[in-house]
Each structure stands twice: as C-alpha cells, then as structure tokens.
C-alpha cells in the first residue's frame, strides 16, 4: 500500500512539474506580445458607429449642415446641390426619418457656394459658407426661421491670402462655442502657403468680427486631406473630425482628441472610419448621437448611430 502511495505521489509531482514548465513556456512566449497590443486588447474603441441608413435621396449630395429649429419644431438640413450654386433645404419632424420635405433652395447672387454650417444664437440662425472666387470668401447670412435669409454684408467676413498665395482656399467653415474662454471659434480648411494644406481657426466675440487666422492642425501635407472640420467637446477633451483623409476627395473620416480647442496633432488620432465624407456629429432630442455622411456620387444623405465609449453620460 505504501509503495502504491509513493508511486502515486511521484506521478502527481511529475504532472505538477510539467504544468509549471508549460506555464513558464507560455509566459515566455507572451513576452513577444507588445505592451501596446495588450493594452489594445483591453481598451474598447473610444468611438464607434452603428449601421448606416438613408434619410434623403437626390442626384447629388455633398457638404451639409443639420440643425433643430425651436421655431417650427423641425430638423433642417442645408447642403450643396449639383451645380454648386445652391443649397438644398430639407425639413423633417424626426432626425432619423427617411424622405425629408424639400423647400426653396438657398442661393447667393447666383454664385458658386460651398459647405454651409448653421448655428443658433439668441434667437437668430447664422449660416457660414464659402463663396467661390479668387480668393475664396467666407460669408455670413442670418435668419429668424431658417427659411428666409438676409446676407450680413456685401463684404465677406474674410478672404485670406498671404505673400506666398493670393488664394488660401478658405473653405468648409464650422463654428464652435468655446464657453471656457467666452468666444466663438471658426475652423476652416486652408492652404498655409502655396502648396501645403492645414486647418486654420479664427475667433470672435460677436460672430461678425473675426481675428486673423492661426493654425490648429498641420501635418505639412500637399494633399488636401483636411476637409470639413467639425469639433465637439466631451468632458475635458475636444474632438476634431476631418474628412478626405489619405485619399482626396473620398477617404476616411478621422477623429483627433485634445485638451485644447486650438491645437491637435497627428498623434492625437483616436479613430478612423472608411469610407466616409463631410461628417457632422449630431445629438438628437432624446440624447442619442448620430454621425452624418454626405455620399457624393452615391446620391444620398445618410446617418449612423454614433457612440462615445468614454463613460460620460
């Protein structure tokens, strides 16, 4: 009996030694996995999207803006139409419904116009957009109801140029309310010299008078992969999203995160979604978020559920 117990103990010990050796071997193998890979496997995407769906079909769809009106309790969409001399105007009772109602388009003196952005402030709606010329101009029109518009001035808000370039390609304006510093910030895509693209910004206290430009995102690229800037604040971070990344005009939608609304770097990239173009980040009345997409030659406006995986409610 004693011999049997001794043999059994020996077998158990041998098995334990083999298990320990196997475990050490696995641990040694895992040394080849980088800390970055292990971190990625434990941290979920800070941003994710759901399945896309169409809200309106038309022959041509490009840069756009979507805003809710407290006047008529409807969502309004303005966006570039074919020919680039008018903005389509659509309304809907629900942000996510398909088949919005079409209204009279917006025009500016029968000239080519691009990339509207609309915000509401103190009962008025401000539309910023690009008037195509040499140089390109950023213009402002104002409305009380999102239907009838008055042009703020015969002169543009600005038409930047410098010694190296008489046309800095001022386009795709987006205006963000910086409550921390009690100011408005307008972001535009532009050329910083005669061949390099960047995202510029200008600040204002009244939405009508703007400072000289500075640069907030610059990767020193000769390809205009900095379309349609859009900024949202979440907690202590400011998220900048850009279109046409890597391949112009259709490319990825990329998201950058910074603790300053005046500076992002390429290393601040947190998410890339391909393919996508000219996105706006929109919060519905029920608190849910959506990412819009102008589909260009695919001939429709789309939305997708948008999720902030940052723990902030």
Provide structural commentary.
The chain has one domain (49-308): Glycosyl hydrolase domain, family 43 (Tachylectin-2, Chain A, 5 Propeller), CATH 2.115.10.20. It is built from two helices and 21 strands. It has helices at residues 2-30, 35-42; strands at residues 47-49, 53-57, 64-69, 74-80, 87-92, 101-106, 113-121, 124-131, 137-143, 149-151, 171-178, 183-191, 197-204, 214-221, 227-234, 237-245, 251-258, 269-276, 281-283, 289-294, 300-308. The strands form five sheets. Strands 1, 2, 19, 20 and 21 form a five-stranded antiparallel sheet that branches. A four-stranded antiparallel sheet has the order 3-4-5-6, with no helix packed on it. The longest helix is centred in the N-terminal third of the chain and has 29 residues, at 2-30. It is globular and about 50 Å long.
Number of domains: 1
Categorize the overall geometry. globular
Question: Would you count the extended β strands for me?
Answer: 21
Give, in order, the helices and strands. HHEEEEEEEEEEEEEEEEEEEEE
Distance between the ends: 68 Å
Task: Kindly estimate the percentage of residues that lie in beta strands according to DSSP.
Answer: over 45%
Tell me the number of helical segments per DSSP (H or I, 4 or more residues long).
2
Tell me roughly what share of residues is in helical segments. Answer: 10-25%
Structural class: mainly beta
Tell me which CATH architecture applies here.
5 Propeller
Sheet having the most strands: 5 strands, antiparallel
CATH C-level label: Mainly Beta
- Cα radius of gyration in angstroms: 26 Å
Q: Please mark out the parts with pLDDT under 50 across 5 or more consecutive residues, or reply none.
A: 2-8, 14-43
Oligomer designation: single chain
What is the typical, i.e. mean, pLDDT? 86
CATH topology, which one? Tachylectin-2, Chain A
Question: Please, what is the CATH homologous superfamily?
Answer: Glycosyl hydrolase domain, family 43
């Amino acid at each position: 009996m004693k011999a049997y117990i001794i043999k059994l103990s020996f077998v158990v010990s041998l098995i334990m030694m083999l298990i320990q050796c196997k475990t050490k071997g696995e641990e040694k193998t895992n040394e080849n996995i980088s800390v970055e890979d292990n971190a990625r496997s434990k941290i979920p995407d800070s941003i994710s999207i759901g399945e896309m769906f169409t809200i309106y079909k038309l022959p041509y769809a490009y840069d756009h803006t979507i805003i809710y009106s407290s006047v008529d309790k409807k969502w309004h969409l303005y966006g570039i139409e074919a020919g680039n001399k008018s903005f389509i105007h659509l309304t809907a009772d629900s942000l996510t419904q398909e088949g919005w109602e079409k209204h009279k388009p917006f025009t500016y003196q029968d000239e080519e116009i691009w990339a509207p952005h609309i915000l509401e402030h103190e009962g008025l709606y401000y539309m910023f957009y690009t008037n195509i010329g040499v140089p390109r101009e950023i213009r402002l029109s104002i409305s009380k109801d999102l239907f009838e518009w008055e042009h703020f001035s015969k002169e543009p808000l600005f038409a930047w140029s410098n010694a190296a370039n008489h046309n800095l390609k001022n386009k795709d304006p987006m205006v963000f309310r910086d409550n921390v510093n009690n100011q408005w910030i307008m972001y535009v895509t532009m050329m910083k010299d005669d061949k390099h693209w960047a995202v510029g910004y200008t600040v204002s206290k009244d939405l009508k008078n703007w400072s000289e430009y500075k640069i907030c995102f610059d990767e020193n690229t000769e390809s205009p992969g900095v379309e349609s800037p859009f900024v949202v604040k979440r907690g202590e971070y400011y998220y900048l999203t850009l279109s046409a990344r890597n391949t112009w005009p259709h490319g990825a939608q990329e998201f950058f995160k910074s603790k300053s609304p005046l500076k992002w770097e390429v290393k601040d990239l947190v998410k890339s979604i391909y393919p996508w173009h000219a996105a706006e980040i929109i919060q519905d009345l029920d608190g849910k978020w959506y990412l819009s997409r102008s589909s260009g030659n695919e001939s429709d406006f789309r939305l997708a559920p948008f999720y902030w995986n940052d723990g902030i409610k």
